[in-house]
Amino acid sequence: MTMSNLDALVQPERGDVLAPYHTVKLRQGTKRFDDWMQARHGFVLEKGWTPKTGIDDDVDLYDGNSETAQFGVYNQADQLTHGMRLTPIQGFEHTLSWEMIENSSIQGQVQEAGLLNPSHQVWDLTRLVPGEAASREGSYETIPKLFGDGLRYCASQGDEDPQWIFVLDKFMSLWLQRQGVDIVKLGEGKVNGDAVVSTFGSFRPAALAMDLTSDFARRAMKEDDL
Description:
Blueprint: E1 22-26, H1 31-47, E2 69-74, E3 80-90, H2 96-100, H3 105-113, E4 121-130, H4 136-156, E5 164-169, H5 170-178, E6 184-189, E7 198-203, H6 207-210, H7 215-221
Parallel strand pairs: 4-5
Antiparallel strand pairs: 1-2, 2-3, 3-4, 5-7, 6-7
């Protein structure tokens, strides 16, 4: 599997009317990054979460971590459709996703499942957030694209079989499963006073490169023209 240089990153796919999108590795100090942070902040407020730094922004520990990578997928009008963040952490119990489910029944479910090794590196997938140009139809292109480029980025950092963990609301986790994404559900319940049930789970995105039977996998593994 050839891995693209995600730093150079990734021009729109030419001649492909189904996927007129391109991925950008977002960098602090740019307008795109500022717009991304606004999208994140709006998402957090909509969820009713209160960041530890207060309600004025969505800056957290991962934003100050030099190993964190943040990605945005943009349409041909250069509008953000979806973004996400990946942070490599040694041990799942040191992740923000784990911290997010503290004081909930989910932690006990995860520990009882015993499927995560506390000494192994995981990539914490956080802030899978829609942008101003998100659409239901476009999600079938943009979310697979995020996952595929995220996998390529992990491989460029020396991890060709990364393990991602996440906390997603139940609707998103079910949507991913319907697209053929092999999510391992480790715990489920309500966090932060949410009305909606959330799933704590894990996923090995390299599986997308091994099984291209689903549209999601084919779209994820389609590389851009560099």
